[in-house]
Amino acid sequence: MNIRGAFAIFKNELQRFFRTVFGSILSPVLTTSLYIVVFGAAIGSRMDPSMFGGASYGAFIVPGLIMLTLLSESTSNASFGIYMPKFTGAIYELLSAPVGVAETIVGFVGAAAMKALIIAGIILLTARIFVDYSIAHPFLAAGYIVLVAAAFALFGFILGLWADGFEKLQIVPMLILMPLTFLGGTFYSVQMLAEPWATVAQFNPIFYLINGLRWTFTGSSDVPIGIAFGFTLGFLILCVGVIAYIFKTGWRLRE
Amino acid sequence: MNDPILEIRNLQKTYKNGPTALGGVDLQIRKGEIFALLGPNGAGKTTLIGAVCGLVNPTGGSIQAFGLDVNRHWREVRCRIGLVPQELSFDMFDKVIRQVRYSRGMFGCAPDEGRIEEVLKSLSLWDKRDEPIRKLSGGMKRRVMIAKALAHDPELLFLDEPTAGVDVELRRDMWKQIEALRERGTTIILTTHYIEEAEEMADRVGVINKGQILLTDDKDAIMSQLGRTEAHFVLADPLTEIPAALAHYPVTLEQEGTHLVYRGGDGTGKGKREVAELAQDLTRNNIAYTELDTRESTLEDIFVGLVAEREQEKAA
Known about the structure:
By secondary structure, chain A is an all-alpha fold. Chain A has helices at 3-19, 21-43, 57-88, 91-96, 101-130, 138-162, 166-186, 197-200, 205-218, 225-249. The relative contact order of chain A is 0.15.
């Protein structure tokens, strides 16, 4: 493996991220903080904690908002990271360099996941200002956050390879991921839903991700934690397989 | 051929539902030479380079670089190859020095600030090292592309239309830099449609058209085999036919007999000698002329002639 090559890509991507600090960090942190202030602190104070396993509503929505940030940031960072060289033509260098799938994943996907983790970390700290939350399983929470960031950065990388225009780059995050995250229990417990919506919610994959993270925070959730971890890991492996196939065939990369 | 650094055999590329870009190309490149690949737009030059560098998946044939198969030993081979593509393609918002460091790292080389400085200085980019690339002029941007390709000290360098769109002064400056690279032992393959560029720099020339190599040879050999001298004598009085005393020369009457045109020679100076003799014979035969215009054929003439000749052969 070309470790220096992988590190060069990783470093270059992070430098690009810090070059646009306002759009990259401040914007998602501000948006998520507003959610916490408006829903958690203002409206949440009027909600009955017994509906959320005894936790305050503000503490209940923090894992969901972290997941919302992780999914959107890791996906968009990775898709943008690989789409831009394709768009500008700078992809020639990656294709002609001694870097393969492993180096590309470590470089592009690793950097995208790292960016999402940095933002998630800042949001977690910022949330503390407005909401009193605790983390029941901190190590599992950290591990799960890293797993989700990596899986969705891989997914974003595939999107970036697939997209042949800026519009396509936005379709999946805006029209699929965002609605599914909102409908996956970011702001409510599935137990609050009436049938058939409580059953319909079970078919939303993001529902398992949010509840997996919520379990690491509160110790209780709507789904067994094993299913959430298994689903995320399976998704990550599937994405690695797809990327390996893309590099082998050159689909959307080589003419 | 002694010591080929690159050996391409029967290389083919057919795009899905598209034309055949390469129709069985055979090419050998010698170590240390500058090889110019000439061809019109769409001839297959960039596809050929792309196939060697890993940008294009060939549909047939084999490529060996440094004695290694480029598919099987792709890591080792790519470490030793540099590519300057035709388009200016980089992160325009990044600084010059960071982009060059990035390229060096991506090719697996250890950080070496001394070498980066050397590369930037050799391309007169050192003073611009902390400038965002987007603020540089077109010529400077092209130099950044070259600096990026040189950052990992390639032994084989591909320059795809290196001077396209740059002014004459900068073009000459780049020729000097390319010559300096060759002196350091880098083998250079350049594609160009500036025939002057090939004439100025290349040791050998290849002509490609419609995915087929029409000819490869030493530049001087091509000039001597296919070179021609053309001389136009503007006659004081028009002639109706070629006088018998001049019949042994390759001459024709043009423009209603007012121009006696010589087309001959072989690129070794024979044409010029014959034109001198023809001028003396005209005087001896009392055929007066008011103007004489001579020119030697250039690689461009040879190139255009070759392409036209092959087209005619195909049509027949």
